[in-house]
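Please, structure for the following, as tokens.
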Amino acid sequence: MNRPQTTDFNSPDVLDELACRVLEWTALPDIDDAEVSITAGEGLAVTVRGGACEMVEHERDKSLAVTLFSKGRKGSATTSDFSATALRESIAAAREIALHGEADAWAGLAAADWLAREYPELELDHPWALEAEAAIALALECERAALGHDSRIKQSDGASVNRYRGTRAYANTHGFHGAYRGTRHGISAVMIAADEHGMQRGYWYSSSRDPAALEDAASVGHTAARRTVAKLGAQRIQTTELPVIYEARAAAGLIGHLISAISGGAQYRRASFLLDAIGTRVLPDFLSLTEQPHLPGALGSAPFDGDGVATRPKTIVADGTLETYVLSAYAARRLGLAPTGNAGGTHNLVLTPGTRDLPDLIAAERRALLVTDLMGFGVNGVTGDYSRGASGFLIERGEIVHAVEEITIAGNLKDMLQGITDVGTDIELQAAVRTGSVRIGSMAVAGA
């Protein structure tokens, strides 16, 4: 008996063809322009705890969004049903909204001149032929390594392995269509340690597009255990002001706050602590921040943005001075500027590294705080006021003396960013923000 053929909706060619076909169906009365965006993917995630499999999750998702423009009005509809009937119904729904919605003078597609016509091969697709049984075995290996690392590791809060392969396609009536596929895989572990002083929880993870670039499972487990044990004996410290060193993974958040402040939405809404900041100093003059969207195999790489605009390498901050905002086509029009290829976000931010690694930064401190974990959401993007729960380690006379918990670090982001005195060489490559540890000269630390 012949089996019915199924469509591979994780194929760039299939999604590109589908986007173009749906775009053709949008040629309707009173519709000036249209765009179609499709995402689809397939993945596997497993979690083990206490030597047993706790969860196996197979993921298969797909979504198509169609947006229509009519005389400055915009209508959008989304569906996960790719049948012709459902797609035509979505188009009809989007048209109804576009014909009766409120006009927006800035609505519309990116100008054709900005759209990606050619783009490089970015080596984003590294499928992992990992089935559930093998994934469970890897997760168990990770957990065993963590539990066996130190007798003070008392239990596991879970070790996980995941893989994902997804495709994105986009087409619009300005003549653009394109699709690309990428992967993202990971191994992680969360451990619980205990001694006479109490219990602590810690974690570690490795993430990459290429499974061959992941840390091995046992290494992830050992690192998770080591970092958890190091937290034992954590204390609060007296309220004071100290230099603060953000470990690289925590430091990425500082750059994220900077990017949020210079995003087009924050600027045209007049809701940023860095309003109208182009040409002004936002970082110390020894620091630059660039965007590198075409790094082969990097987690943040992309050939085009959510508007179909070509991504390109650029300098965002040069020698401390802000050179550009990060803009979608819509935000660019509202600000009277050109789009920057950032609809949907930035792609591989790189902060200038210094010359010292984290141990050298620690060794140079008389008294300081090393922050490894942040909690809460106490950040005001309008005023720049910053107050977050934190944990980490107290440094005295160039050495870590004990773990620190239940503290709050506070300041103003404008002052904090300009108060950076050093960036470590310990660059975090497993992230879309590539920065080393970041030292800020002084922050308020609220403790006991």
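The radius of gyration is 24 Å. The longest strand covers residues 153-172.
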